[in-house]
């Protein structure tokens, strides 16, 4: 599975990653953005958690970050 450099940068900045996962994401960033399916599953879960915390405003409309997270979740599903 491949993600853009911008998506990988966002993941590194916004999500709370384990040391091991962070190292694999950094390796993917320098190696063309290729992730394993297991890492994609883990990232999809982490994106979903962040979406619940900061992805919606008080009227339950997606925030800008929420829209980005929803798009990223979709990309991680479709690979």
Computed over alpha carbons, the radius of gyration is 12 Å
Series of H and E elements: HHHH
Beta-strand proportion: under 5%
Number of strands: 0
Give the structural class.
Answer: mainly alpha
| Shape, principal axes of CA atoms | elongated
Sheet of most strands = none
Written description of the protein model:
The protein is mostly helical and about 80 residues long. About 70% of the residues lie in helices and about 0% in strands. It is built from four helices and no strands. It has helices at about 5-15, 20-30, 35-55, 65-79. Helix 1 runs antiparallel to helix 2 and helix 3 runs antiparallel to helix 4 (about 65-79). The termini are close together. The mean pLDDT is about 95.
What keywords describe this structure?
79 residues; mainly alpha
Task: Reconstruct the topology from this structure.
Blueprint: H1 5-14, H2 19-30, H3 37-54, H4 64-78
Helix pairs in contact: 1-2, 3-4
In short:
This protein has helices at 5-14, 19-30, 37-54, 64-78.
